[in-house]
Structures are given as C-alpha cells and as structure tokens.
Amino acid sequence: MENFTPEEQAPTQPEITISAEEAAQVQASFMRQVYGWMAGALALTGGVAMLVGSSPEIIELVAGNRLAFWALLLLEMFVVGYISARAFDMSVSAVTGAFFAYSALNGITLGIIFLVFTADSIASTFFVTGGTFAVMSLYGYFTRTDLSRWGNILFMGLVGLIIASVVNLFWLNSLLYTITSFIGVIMFVALTAYDTQKLKALAFVGLGDEETDRKAAVLGALTLYLDFINLFLFLLRIFGRRK
C-alpha cells in the first residue's frame, strides 16, 4: 500500500504517515465540511438579502445613507481580514460566529441589488453561478494538473481588476464596466478551481485535531464563499435585467 505524508500538517503535530487511500478519504471528508459551511453561509446571505430587498425601511437605511453603506463595507473587509489572519488563534465558536456574522453583513449590502435588478434575473443568475461554480470546483478537486502556477497570474489579475473597478467608480465608463465584468467572471471562474485544489492540502492541517480541522474547514468555506459571491456579482452585471 502506498504511503502518504501530508505536507500541510500543523507545526505542533507529530508527523503522521497515512496511505494514499486514507489521504483521499481525509480530503473528501474535509471538503464536505467546507461545502456544508459554505452552503449555510450562502443561505444566510440570501435570506438576509431578500429580507432587506423586501423592506423599504431597511433599504432606505442602507442605500439612502452613504456613510452607513461604506461603514458596512469596511466592517465586512475587517471581518474577512481578521478571520483570514487569526482563524487558527481563535476558538472554533468564534471563527464560526465571525464567518456567519460576515455572511449576514454581506446579505445586508447585497440586498441593494433588488433595487437595481429584477428578482427573476437575480434568481436565474444565481443558478447559473451555482452551476459554473460546481463545474469549476469539481475540476479543481479532481484534476491532476498543478494549478499552483496560476497563483501569481491570478493575484496580479485580481489587483488590476480592483484598480480598474475603483477607477471606474469615478470615471463611469460603460466600456470599462463591460470589460471588467467579463474579466471578473474569468478571474473568479479560475480562482474557484485554483482555491479548491489549494484547499485539498489544507485538509491535513487539522489531521488528528478536531478543533483545528473545524477551523480549517470554516476558513476554506470563507475562501470559496468569496469566490462564489464575486462570480455571482460579475455575472449579474452581464446577465442581470435592470428595472
């Protein structure tokens, strides 16, 4: 039987050697956790977004108050950065709570899309996003191609996309808006496969430690959640029907 020594074990753990078959089972179990946490977060975000979209009072509070809206966005960025940097230093309940708090906050800001796009186009784009995400995540999980070489290209592309999007907030150029929308879709389609493959290595961080394994799964769920949400928003810019 072929043996497998995970490279991504936590530094404090003794070296554990397992068979390739056991390694595959560990990865499959870990990814089930990741997808489960991600699905729960998406359900929470969607529920909050629909609640906000159906309440003129909340919409007015969020969309009508630019200071409140930007404060929410900054708070979201802080929570994501904090979870990403400190996940393994936090308790399991704190990591999970922060993740779902972020998902709820994101639902509040996303509720504004119901002011701009029709409910039917939002729903159809969500299902298109789900199908695209599933295909690319499965590709990232099962492919034998090493996708790590995509890392630098995707990082540079993401930085360029952010800069172009910020510039267009002031320039309001329709052509640049269209270009960044298509580039954004391509970027997050690729990132879905790349991050999924990367998470297969993260499965071994908590090997033999249930709490560390749970934290790693929540961190992985956050990564794929962000890929899904961004892919959805860029697809909505292309296929969404405005009111």
Features:
243 residues; mainly alpha; two-stranded antiparallel ribbon; 2 strands; 79% helix; disordered N terminus
Describe this structure in words.
- With 243 residues, the chain is an all-alpha fold.
- The protein has one domain.
- The chain contains 9 helices and 2 strands, in the order ββααααααααα.
- It has helices at 20-53, 56-63, 66-86, 92-110, 113-116, 119-142, 150-171, 174-202, 210-239, and strands at 3-4, 18-19.
- It is globular.
- The termini are far apart.
- The model is unreliable at 1-11 (pLDDT under 50).
- This is Bax inhibitor-1/YccA family protein.
Draw up the topology in text.
Blueprint: E1 3-4, E2 18-19, H1 20-53, H2 56-63, H3 66-86, H4 92-110, H5 113-116, H6 119-142, H7 150-171, H8 174-202, H9 210-239
Antiparallel strand pairs: 1-2
Subcellular location: Membrane
Pfam families: Bax1-I
Family: Belongs to the BI1 family.
